[in-house]
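Possible race condition, two jobs.
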Amino acid sequence: MEQIEQVQLTASHWVFLLLILAIFISIGFRKGVIVPSIAGIFMLGLLADAPHEGVLNQMIFAVQVVFRALLNAGTELFDIMLVIALMVAMLKSLQHQGADRLMVAPMKKLMVGPWTAFFVVGITMYIAAAFFWPTPAVALVGTVLIPVAMQVGLPAIGAAMAVNLFGHGMALSADPVIQGASRLTASAAGIETTTLVPYTLLFSLVVGGVAITMACLALRRDMRSGALEAPKGDEVFTPRSAGAAAVQTDTVKEEEEPEAGPYARIFAIAVPIILLGIAGLMIYRAVFMPDQAIRGGGATALLGGTATLLLVLSSFASHGHHALDGISTYTREGFFFAIKIFAPIIPIAGFFFLGHPGHSAEVIGAGAAGFLFDIGHNIGNYIDGNVFLLTFGMAFIGLLSGMDGSGFSGLPLVGSLSGALGTAANVDIHVLAALGQVAAIFAGGGTLAAWAFGVAADAGIAGVSPAALVRRNFVPVISGIIVASLLAVFLLI
């Protein structure tokens, strides 16, 4: 590889590097990384060139940099937060009139045995998670389909693996519709979300395909040997009491199943058709009418606007003239969910975004260094075109960063490192960033961290322990990530 010109590293670069090390140590001890991130932003502000001289002015500038870094991250991510809030609010309005259960009820007819049940539950979870995100989707899919899956012979751990691998694994790591995960990674890497999504989709399918195949083979072996059995008759677990409570927001009390409203069937048919129609339109235009393609911010706006209109219509169908009051409750619940997801991510993203020169200049001022990109350029001289080391290193970093139990908090780190090292090594940043994102979310989003909310929710909805679910997932998921890493090496050569 051609020798890259060395960048002169300043004290700020070393502080940035030390703070990344501190964040890795915090992750290793399963501690939060918000405080190191904020401390890092403040220290970079202290070391930056303030507009006016003097110790007091430097302190004032550093404090301002902290706020501007958080504001920059929040501004970058707000549209994704908004569309997630609106989608969840729409789902809440559908739940009130019973339309949500009617949407997935037809899938019960397809479950005639344990293996059809496994894939019907999994694929339904994937579709629901792609549009509503996995956490709201697991209550919807799990409470309706899991009891039926058990009745036709699928063990509880098999049902938990289906919703977990398809939902918090494949669907969340690719995030093909809402694209919140990809936006976070792409912003840190300095690339476009629309060019990253095809790679995240590819790697998520590879990891998921390998993991699901191995999981099914292990389930089949244990079911044949009698080590796993489906509950019989009245022993079938009803997840409403345990699982549904686990996936509801703190402000929502568990309620009795609502009776289907007069318009529930209409919405149960119309909403999936509309949302799938939008997804189909996006794909069609991207392939056959690229000059009129709906991507990026336009796709987010179309999805968010559609969710808003459906929310209004569903609220009026459910409440009549009282919808003027009812819609505020759904909107509040939707925003509460979105903020709960993104609030701890914004300070972390604020720090790692400073690794990119564009974000750094926006926060600190014109001429500010892109700290991580400069470090990456210098490291590039030592990589010397070792694509194997670079690829597996990124997969390992993704796995490690996901072990905090979130998956999302590691995406700014994954994106920043991919952008810096990919640029330095002159390889495709999209491949590295996508691999790191998929590894991070499969680990912490999640399928491998027993303390992750996704694992707890999916295990709870099926009535099994999170530790048992993680033990079942470990070898299949790690094998999938290894195969995806080998594919990434092939793509980068």
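Job #2 (started ~2 s after job #1):
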Amino acid sequence: MLTAFEEAIALLVSGDEMLTNIVLVTLRMSIASSLIALAIGMPLGTALAMGRSKIVSALVIVNRTLMGVPPVVCGLLCYLMFCGVGPLRWLQLLYTVEGMVVAQVLLITPIVAGNMESYVRGLVDDVRETARGIGLSRVRTALLLLGECRYQVFTVYLIAFGRAIAEVGAVSMVGGAIAYKTNVMTTAIMMYTNRGDFTLGIALGIILLLMFLTLNVAVSIVQRNVAR
């Protein structure tokens, strides 16, 4: 066990080509999917928080349900859509990073929307009253709300990025964990551990832990600024 940790540290220091490729693919997929999910989920969550009709209430329930969808179900849906007999096979997204991004966006967007809805709902009444007093439109009111919870938006993005980088089920089904192409840290840890290659698995695990530590520190700093 100790030897495996020593070899993992040596692998990290050496700048191994495969290790570097896995980390870069992971970052490329996670950053792209979390940014797209934020771009879709942020206005969606704001709209859900501002709405007061029964339809909006039903959509909130649907979104909260989608927040708990198992990743493998999302991966299965994307696989069926992109495979050789699927309706979107012409896009040729199966076993590509782009296909993995699509799966991640479907998985993360409800989480972004749900968190934004929770944050904005606490501010919407006060901001709406102010907006009516100065004659702002609904769009400008929504922008004012987003400005008021800008720190929370950053926190939501960090949550989305953390969710993307930790995902296994959907990305393994859609990406196939192909070496030097679609293999990301979580799928690589699982694959190399099953092969008995604990050195690479431990090295990737250390990188993941450091990334999550960085994310948690960033979230804590943002929350501290909000509290002030």
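The radius of gyration is 20 Å.
Logs attached separately.
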